[in-house]
Write a structure and sequence with these properties.
Radius of gyration: 26 Å
Strand order of the largest sheet: 3-4-2-5-6-1-7
Shape: elongated
Helix content: 40-55%
Number of strands: 19
Bound molecules: adenosine-5'-diphosphate, zinc ion
Largest sheet: 7 strands, parallel
Structural class: alpha/beta
Number of helices: 22
Length: 528
């Protein structure tokens, strides 16, 4: 009874043309599609915008039965299904947003063999009733989208994904294709092992997105800096601005609107209806700026996003890559801009320290953050570093801030010694909490109320740092934190020494530091 409607066509190129209206496959697609259409298992690593969807949609159309797509993006299933139906593909979905009647209708269609593709939320697959339903139909393949969610080592782990290891046991003859746009070598290996895809063919595309210009700037007045970027380079462009907290999303959106930029907020605290409406407007209208937490964006297919701006430091390079990857899917020049400052490092270290979970989990978070900091503080090509993080090779690109305006390094050894010995002195006043601001006051010889209260103007280090200014000292602290030569402890952001600090204090280690280039403006030319 499942054969009431056979495959659309046997030939994959014909399906590409007739159903999707495209002339030719993109790089990698043809091979992957042939392999999966022939019943092979595949693990696909391909950047955002590379064209992953067709890699399972076309095989599902040329094979008998229904292609089952597992995706965590419940909010997008309706859109995905609508888009497929618009080109004549018989698609449906099952997730928790439906009422029982809707679900029964989809189930009946599935059993009648009248579906080409069925989208499923991972938590549904864990239900025995869903498994029994699948048993009664005919499955052409399983596609596991956002496959990095199965990796605990990754940055976006979802426990529901672990259950997907059972697919192979329960339906051993059904081919599986897992896809992700972000995976370090470690995450790649973990996906393969957790999903039993070691024997699958692995297709790894280049992660380079040459049309994206990467820029990371010191954070001073973030909202003003953002406004300047929008006015000078992206007036009237669609873009996404990421903030860490809901309140900064609200404030930033309001600030932009006040200054004549059409901006909308998006975060999990907003009413679902407002969220959906804002997302729909962003997708349909031209030139809107979405100010959002990272709750926004996964699976969003808007080709002409011209910039992605981060006002706060992402927690990992994977997150940064994935978020910036939403810019320029149409291949046209786009900007990935991040403002980052000392406060980001302090705040994130504190968040890690107070996070739930075991030590291993905290160490994992710290490793992710360290890699992100290293990317921020590098004097090398950002793209080379980014690709290296994903285990890929790149050449200096000429299209990132460090290539366009190379930063210089300076010998920060003496400055580091001064700072670390100040930390050392204060560390002995155990009950007190002294953050970066107070330390810098001491180094600059400022007799603030707090300095006087604690007699810190009598320390031998008082006033020894006047060769640098306040912002330069903040850059020193930031970089020492990034280099692991300094750490943050407790709720107040108290700076403490690390084991490696001893090497600097004992003059066994030099500390080259990054000097920020002159401000980069307008396509990378340094301001006069
Ligand atoms: P990903 O999931 O890898 O981010 P998508 O599958 O959403 O990418 O594809 C990105 C965009 O590229 C979509 O708009 C899609 O229609 C388009 N696309 C995919 N394959 C082709 C192709 N062979 N020719 C032209 N456009 C394509
Ligand atoms: Zn570069």
């Amino acid at each position: 009874a499942t054969d009431t409607h056979g495959p659309v066509a046997r030939d994959t190129s014909e399906v590409l043309r007739r159903v999707f209206g495209y002339d030719s496959f993109r790089e990698g697609q043809g091979e992957i599609i042939d392999h999966v259409a022939a019943g092979g298992d595949a693990l696909v690593l391909m950047p955002t915008g590379g064209g992953k969807s067709l890699c399972y949609q076309i095989p599902a159309l040329v094979r008998d039965g229904v292609g089952v797509v597992i995706s965590p993006l419940i909010a997008l299933m309706q859109d995905q299904v609508d888009a497929l139906r618009a080109v004549g593909v018989r698609a449906g979905f099952l997730n928790s947003t439906q009422d029982p009647d809707e679900r029964r209708t989809v189930e009946a269609t599935f059993l009648a063999g009248e579906l080409d593709l069925l989208y499923l939320a991972p938590e549904r697959l864990r239900l025995e009733s869903t498994a029994r339903l699948l048993d009664r139909g005919r499955i052409s393949l399983f596609a596991i989208d956002e496959a990095h969610c199965v990796a605990q080592w990754g940055h976006d782990f979802r426990p529901d994904y672990l259950a997907l290891s059972a697919l192979h046991e329960r339906w051993p003859s059904v081919p599986r294709i897992a896809l992700t746009a972000t995976a370090t070598p470690a995450t790649h290996a973990e996906i393969a092992s957790r999903l039993n895809l070691e024997d699958a063919r692995h297709f790894v595309a280049s992660f380079d997105r040459p049309n994206i210009q990467y820029r990371i700037v010191p954070k001073q007045e973030p909202k003003r800096q953002l406004l300047e970027l929008l006015r000078t380079e992206h007036a009237g462009d669609a873009g996404i601005v990421y903030c860490l907290s809901r309140s900064s999303v609200e404030k930033t959106a309001a600030f932009l609107v006040e200054h004549g930029v059409e901006a909308l907020p998006y975060h999990a605290g907003l009413d679902a209806g407002v969220r959906a409406a804002n997302q729909a407007r962003f997708l349909r209208e031209d030139g809107l700026v979405m100010v959002a937490t990272i709750a926004f964006g996964m699976g969003i297919d808007k080709p002409d996003v011209r910039f992605v701006a981060h006002l706060d430091l992402p927690k990992s390079v994977e997150g940064y890559y994935q978020e910036t990857g939403r810019a320029g899917r149409d291949g046209l020049p786009s900007t990935a801009w991040l403002a980052y400052g000392l406060q980001d490092v302090v705040q994130q270290r504190k968040m890690i320290e107070s996070s739930e979970g075991d030590d291993a989990h905290r160490r994992r978070l710290a490793t992710h953050l360290d890699a992100m900091l290293a990317l921020c503080e590098t004097v090398e090509c950002r793209r080379v570093r980014l690709l290296a993080y994903f285990g890929q090779h790149g050449e200096p690109c000429g299209n990132c801030d460090t290539c366009l305006t190379p930063p210089t390094t300076w010998d920060g050894t003496i400055a580091a010694q001064k700072l670390l010995s100040t930390v050392y002195r204060l560390q002995h006043e155990r009950r007190q909490k002294f953050g970066a601001g107070h330390l810098i006051d001491i180094l600059l010889g400022r007799r603030t109320a707090k300095v006087i209260q604690f007699d810190h103007d009598t320390l031998t280090v008082f006033g020894v740092g006047q060769e640098l200014g306040e912002s330069e000292w903040r850059a020193v602290v930031r970089q020492l934190l990034a280099l692991g030569l300094l750490a943050v402890e407790g709720d107040y952001g108290t700076l403490v020494l690390t084991e490696a600090s001893g090497e600097v204090l004992g003059r066994r280690r030099e500390v080259p530091l990054r000097r920020e280039p002159e401000r980069v403006r307008r396509g990378g030319k340094a301001a006069a």
